[in-house]
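Why predict the complex rather than its parts? Because the way molecules touch one another can change local conformation, and only a joint prediction can capture that. The input here totals 1167 residues.
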Amino acid sequence: MLELDPTTLLVLVPALPLAGALLTVLLGRRLGSGAHWPAVVSIAAAAVAAVTLLVGLAGDVSEKASRVQPAPPVEMITTLWQWATVADAYAPAAGSPAAAGEDLAARSAGLPAALPFSIGIDLRLDPLTATMLAVITCVGLLVAIYSIGYMHDDPGYPRFFALVAAFVFSMAMLVAASNFLLVYVFWEAVGACSYLLIGFWFQRPTAAAAAKKAFLVNRVGDFGLAVAVFLLWMTYGTLNFHDTTLADGSLMPGILGAERLGAAAGIVGGTVGTAICLLLLLAACGKSAQLPLHVWLPDAMEGPTPASALIHAATMVTAGVYLVARCAPLYVACPAALTTVSIVGATTALVAALIGTVQNDLKRVLAYSTISQLGYMFASLGTGTLLGFTAAIFHLVTHAFFKALLFLGAGSVMHSMGGVIDMRRFGGLRRIMPITAATFLIGSLALAGVAPFAGFFSKDEILAALHSRGWTHHAAEHHDAEVHEGHAGGELPSVPEARPAIYRTESGPLIQFASAGDGEPEAETSAGTFRLLYWMSLFTAALTAFYTFRAVFMTFTGPTRVPEEAGHHAHESPRVMTIPLVILAVAATVSGWLLFSTEALSRFLAATPSLAAPAVAATATPHAFHLDLAIQGTLAAAVGILIAAIGYLGRSSDGPQPERFLGPLEGLFANRFYLDELYTALIVRPLEFFGLLAAGFDRYVIDGLVNLVACVPLAIGAVVRRLQSGLLQRYAVAGVMGTLLVVLALAWQLRG
Amino acid sequence: MTPSPLVLDGLMVGGMLFALGLVGILARRNLIVMFLSAELMLQGVSVSLVSWSRHHGDWGGHVLVIFVLTVAACEAAVALVFVLQAFARSGRLDSAAWQSLRESNLSRTVDHELPAVDAVAPVFPRLTPAGVAPHVAEDANLEREHV
Amino acid sequence: MSPGEGLSMTGSILAVAVGCAAASLWLLLPRGEGGVRERMARRFGTLLGCVSLALFIATGHRLGGVGEEAVFLVVALVAVISGAATIVTRSPVYSAIWFALALAGVAGVLLVLGAQFLGVATIVVYAGAILVMFLFVLMLAQPSGMAPYDRVSNEPLLSAVAGAVLLGLLTLFIGRLSAGPADCCAVPSKATALGSEGAQDSAVADAPSADPLAANHVARLGGELFGRHLLAVEAAGVLLLVALIGSIAIVSRTPPEERVELARRADA
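Output of the joint prediction:
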């Protein structure tokens, strides 16, 4: 048996899919219908490696956690090679944000005057990364297997698998990267894979346009990430997450390394910190399709369904959640940014759910549901508590399973219906495709948050996190208490009211509020905000249940109808497609209960350095099952399902639509709140106008100048070309005359 | 060190031959004559080389002239073949027969009309066939006019 | 006479000489005129040529004693005048014959300069081989009668001026050489730099007109050629061979496969 250490495994997780992608690119055409083998085998091996890593790390953590409470942070860094090194690149100048915080200035005193800019190919392993890796590779593997059936006979068969493997590689690198530059690189790489997969059927104009839209909207977010990386560099003088040892032996604290997190004033708050957090949020909004950059995700459904399941439901769109969770200490230092995250998330969840209620395209319903669920995760992240962060990741994991399941189920329906995905054109499919129907139902129950399916527990955690911030008798009390303790400790520097202040508590962790004086009113305001967000989320839960079951009822119940595109072979999908459905259905059923009851995930994640930072760990609350919240959530789900049942159960889906009762609102929802139109009017049209102006300027002014310049030699040439008689002796005469002139000039120079 | 007068005169002769050859190359249209002019230039160079050789008391110039002779022989062989080929193609030994390098919209350069030459038929001497007694006209004046 | 005055004096003579040379060449070159005008032009051109030649000799001012120098003057005049005749004669056949005479003159110059072997070799190689080849080509290619392109020149004025100016410049530089290293800069200093090397230079300096190469001339030249320059001699041999093969390859116009076919047919 080959003994593999964690480092090798960690390298293998991204390396194997990369090799698979390259092999597929090189051999794809020769393999023909067997082109899936390199990708599937490599992703399977990567999945095995990732799960081995996860299990090993989880064993480690739980072992330590039993002795010390809570578990100490675990991280393992592997630097494959040094990418770029620039000596003396960063000098912390006086007045720069890095030097502004007195503690940080004191800290940088121990450092050399100029820090090197040093970027390595650093891979990290910690609980958060291990979890993400396992989810990515496992879902990727199931989707790849499913695609063997779904994509067969497609002319781009090898291309598809090459792209899927490349995506798994990029995504694995994104979550394993241990510096912001590498994160940025693979952030772009997954975006490129997404672009290529949305536009997979590039012959279709709609697919090409959707790919372009996704790419352009993501650019806005990526711009945020780029500026955030610049700001981080300006502020911290490094881009590494982890601490590194410099050439002279001194320790350079990374942004999220133990040195900085453990020390007071390690994290810069205030205006700069908030700017960084908001820019990172902008990036996350782009990638995770949050308001106002969500417009690309519904259109992205133009891509092949497995790609939608993998990239636009289960993994890539969660990159934003991962990024915010990874940068949790940065956010905790900036409460304003945190609240923004929550507001963005909850609003997105509500808006997307409202739009989802009137969609007739099965995949679009799921797309809006994805946006909505991602909104939940952001709302949870924005609470800024350990519970919120772990709940978001928890929901991310369960959502990956049940949303992949739903998408693959929708793909199965689409496959069987000859490419038709409009729910009004088919119905009663449970008789034709029983396995798909059963697994889709399980996925829907999980999405709707019905106990004991996975979504129930993760959504309950999120609601609990929001609740704990809205009604401060649980956690916020503890939170505030620490602040006041710090207040009483007398270490508070006297600062002007308007300026953000940095101060530390007795126990060490840094907590920063917008203003020292009005900590309590601030907390009060945020509590009000979170109460509102909680009710919004609860309402969204009901809406989620409604639109999910509306889709289930329209598709699988009522009289059996099949569109003519399906022909006479409307049938259950092949086994290679149904087996991944069944596996995902099992995961969607049991993962929630398993992970919740054993607390395995939350304890495990708490050992992530970012989440084990004192500032975050201080917000930990005892693990509990909130019966009141569970009842509220279940009630909401039940109401949603009930309304859906009244409206759609057993009816023919092409009949009169009950949502007509919504009146003018229906138009608003069906047109996606006119956001696309708003963007067109506000951004696209002015840009087009400006482009037209620029084109005119280019054509008439610039080109005119260029043509004018070109005219001069043309005119000279018209005269001079007469000399080109083709008579060689004339050329010789000219040459000799020229030479003589030069010699004469020289003789004149040397005339003595 | 000032060169001796003889060396300077040699250089002068070399320069003159070179300049004359240059004029020939530039002005004459007949390919053969151009060729002779080129050889004339080579002769000028040879004379200069030998002069310098004498000035420095060194064999280099002499050796170089021998190589000039060799290369000139090669050059003559190859170039005369080219001349023959050119003649086969154009029917003339005229360097102006080849004008394809001119600008595409320019017309061919042609010579202006030449005035007629006073056509004096060349008188060639007639040789007596060997072995036959020459037939002498009765009234032929066998004495030369100018002696 | 101070050097400066001498120079300016020489300069003006030189300018006149150059002008005369250019004018005479222009007059002598065929310009497609024909008739009396052409005959007049040729006479006048010949006259001007003689004048310019005399002026060039005058700028040289080195014709001191009789004997060697008088012989030199004769052969040099033969070479230069025949050279001029080569380029101005209308008929290419006459040109070739004038060229043969010019070669004889050059051979004489070489002999006077102490290069016995080269003088003879020039006659043998050029007059004996190359010139005959020219005449063969002329016989093959020259159409009967005077061709029109032999009666006109390409840019006669410009060419004549170019040649004359070149000659003037060369004369100027050679004059500077005789003036010594102090008065001139580039060319003489190089010459002296070359000249100051080697043991023979002291002997030359003692007797400026003596030829250090005279003793046992041909044997030493042969030794030099097949000693230091053996490799170059071999390369020249290869060059000759290649030129031979190249000429044959170019001139044989039937493709090889056709030639094979022809040979087969001849056999049959």
